[in-house]
Amino acid sequence: MVTKEIFVIIVAFTAILSFSLGVVWQQGGHETLAEEGVEYEQVIAQSGEFTLTAEYAKNNEWEYEITGSFDNQCPKFDVSTELIDSLPAVVKVKMVVYKPADEVLCAQAIKPVKETGTFEATAETEIEFIVQEAESRPTVTGLPALEG
Questions:
Q1: Tens digit of pLDDT at every position of the chain (148 positions)
Q2: How many CB atoms lie within 10 A of CB 65?
Q3: How far apart are CA 24 and CA 16, in angstroms?
Q4: CA atoms lying within 13 Å on the CB side of residue 35
Q5: Measured CA angle at 139 (ends 138, 140), to 5 deg
Q6: How many angstroms separate the CA atoms of 87 and 109, rounded?
Q7: Which of 24, 70, 77, 101 could be a cystine partner for 111, CB 3.0 to 4.6 Å?
Q8: Is the pTM of this model over 0.85?
Q9: Within 10 Å of residue 134's Cβ, how many Cβ atoms?
Q10: What is the domain partition of the chain in residue ranges?
Q11: CB-side neighbour CA atoms (13 Å) of 119
């Protein structure tokens, strides 16, 4: 009789323990899904005629897009990103626009700009967008640099 009671107690204890572990395991899975499903707001910044839209993708990676237009076909540009180590962290997205020399004739037609890229930073990073104008584009060994 005592062995039957011990057997029933062991079976009941095992069943309760298994059920409890199953519930805890399922709850942990839901928390992970909730963390993965977090949506972050887009960051939108304006500088002159250009707009930067940046969005946190995942795993410390941001995706950005710069849109706007030039009023003629001549300007070229470069885009760079720089992570400033501060609290909170700041990423500066800098667009340098190279205007042609005064003696260059340019077709007066709107030139749309759409530049995309990525950079690495935490989800809490602040984004700054700067557009700077420069007189001429840097050259490499006397040859014009590649177009952007």
A1: 567 776 556 655 555 545 443 433 333 333 332 345 566 778 999 998 999 999 999 899 999 999 999 998 889 999 999 999 888 899 999 999 998 888 888 888 999 999 999 999 998 899 999 999 988 766 555 555 555 4
A2: 14
A3: 12
A4: 8
A5: 130
A6: 44
A7: 70
A8: no
A9: 13
A10: 1-38, 43-138
A11: 25
From the list 62, 30, 68, 27, the residue with the least C-alpha distance to 46 is: 68
State which amino acid sits at residue 106: C
Q: What's the chain look like in SS3? A: CHHHHHHHHHHHHHHHHHHHHHHHHHHHHHHHHHHHCCCCCCEEEEECCEEEEEEEEECCEEEEEEEEEECCCCCEEEEEEEEECCCCCEEEEEEEEECCCCCCCCCCCCEEEEEEEEEECCCCCEEEEEEEEECCCCEECCEECCCC
**What is the distance between the alpha carbons of residues 9 and 127, in angstroms, rounded to a whole number?**
61
What integer pLDDT is reported at residue 20 of this predicted model? 47
Token readout for 95 is 């667009």
* Backbone dihedral angles phi then psi of residue 144, each to the nearest 5 degrees: -60, 145
